[in-house]
Amino acid sequence: MEFTSACLVISATLSILPDRSQFFRYESFSLGCSVPDNSNTWTVLRNTSSKDLVPCGVDWGQPNGFLCNNSNIYASDTGRYWCQSKEGECSNVLNITVHTDVVILESPALPVMEGSTVTLHCSHKERYAEHSSSSFRAAFFKDGYFIGHHTGEMIFPNVSKSNEGSYKCRHPTKGESPLSWLTVRVEAKPTTPSAPTTSKPTLITPIKVVSSILLFILYTVILILCVYIMRKLTQAQAQAKYRVSNGPG
Predict the structure, then answer these.
(1) Rounded distance, CA 162 to CA 164, Å?
(2) Is 233 helix (H, G, I), strand (E, B) or coil?
(3) How far is the C-alpha of 53 from the C-alpha of 46, rounded, in Å?
(4) Per-residue pLDDT tens for 185-202?
């Protein structure tokens, strides 16, 4: 199966379980590819510092349908992961870091929605320890600036676009984690069409009716007077012409 590095269309979604971008050595994660047509022509690919465009099941991971399980991971598993089809369609890209030191920041690898609750965990795990621990007072940094001390975790109860950025944490004595980018996605609000404006019906009041009647009577009287005056003037002019034409008697 041949694949290309150039994505023609982004039409699938790659998710990761657990949802974080940093891991300790010897941990495990699973990648899931959600595709629109349930086609079996998709696979999970990765680019690492040593090899590019390596499908799941070739030197790394165990494919299981649309899943790829990667267990007992090492620093060599650090890289960029995505889904791709033979036709050149792709998914989003996840940047995964496998840290060889003893402190990581557990932050979401996938974008979080604005308004949701987001928790950043600062975790410490010695090389051969079975479990990690967050029960210590960690210093947290955003975009290179110190933002506070918290015991193991920092919570954003109502995350906003202003919380988007690059984060890391520091153990009091064991060092600090790699950087991790937090993406906050703003949900598009549907536009509400404006209601059509309706003209209010004209109210006919008794005052308007009386006023209209009075104006009509006034205009009628004025018209009658004008006609009467015009007739009188016409008669007067006719009599004057008659006298001039007949002369004195």
Answers:
(1) 5
(2) helix
(3) 5
(4) 998 776 665 555 555 555
